[in-house]
Amino acid sequence: MSFLYLKVEGTEEDYKNIHPIFLPKKRLKIGTFKVINNGFRLGERFMKIIFDNALKNEVDEIYVTIFDKRNEQRRLIYLLEQWGFVLWGKKDDDELVYVRDFSKKTDDNHLKECYPFISRDKECFIVPIYPDYHTELLPDSILNTESPEDFIEDFPHRNSISKIYVSRAMTPHPKTGDILIFYRTGGYYKGVVSTIGVVDEIKYDFKDEDDFILYCRKGSVFPEEQLRAMWHYRSSKPFVVRFLYVYSFPHRINMKELIDLKVLSGINDSPRGFKPITKEQFNIILKATKSDESFIVD
After folding, report:
1. What pLDDT is recorded for position 274?
2. CATH number of 124-295: 2.30.130.30, 1.10.150.120, 2.60.220.30, 2.40.30.110?
3. What does CATH list as the number for 3-103?
4. What contacts 24+ positions apart, CB below 8 Å, involve 274-278?
5. Global pTM?
6. Other CB atoms within 10 A of residue 276 CB
């Protein structure tokens, strides 16, 4: 079994058993964080829940206390460190205290340490994704017309924050820190923008087919045989965008609305490859989708 318990603590909380002592801040405490070692990325799923709650409750800091005695505890410490938690000190019983600053900031060299915050000043691209793969890769962005029961089975690409998008698109290509808006294809009425991601890495230079498979396997919706077919599809090889899933739009707008809002110029402007849009168009999408912009730093 896996467990996660969270508690919001106010500035009046007593931390006299933590050394060095905490200064008064609004904090989110991770009271219980246990992930069974089953090979799936439930740890990242829990991290997403933690960060979503930190945003919702507008906390300044997140912290957890944990011993470093068993392998499962060490695995959790490694996961926490990947997402920006640093060792603060100890409790009276020698339990370690790890803290994650949750002030709004971005750093292209340390995206996970600043997650889920993104910068409005970065380049932004609309990226198409076929319906067959959309909710498989982005289950939190499920459509009302889809059944959640079809997406409950544990797969790494469903649980992870870090995901893989395989492409052969012509330029322009995004850079680390750039914003991706995923567009579920479907035409004039059924094609919708659903999700925001931020580019973590773009990889072109794979040594060989096996290197490509190893890089893609855990974060991609494609099974190994399909990845191998993609590698051999033509002589020019695919490149891979690793991105962090950030946000699902609460209200979906379709191609018709994107055209009406002048984000797209017409039905023949359906997103292909990585379609750049302006900051103004990005702001229009945020407003039209009724987005909570608390994850945007500027």
Report:
1. 96
2. 2.30.130.30
3. 3.40.630.30
4. 274/125, 274/126, 274/127, 274/167, 274/169, 274/172, 274/173, 274/174, 274/180, 275/125, 275/126, 275/127, 276/123, 276/124, 276/125, 276/172, 277/124, 277/125, 277/126, 277/181, 278/124
5. 0.90
6. 13
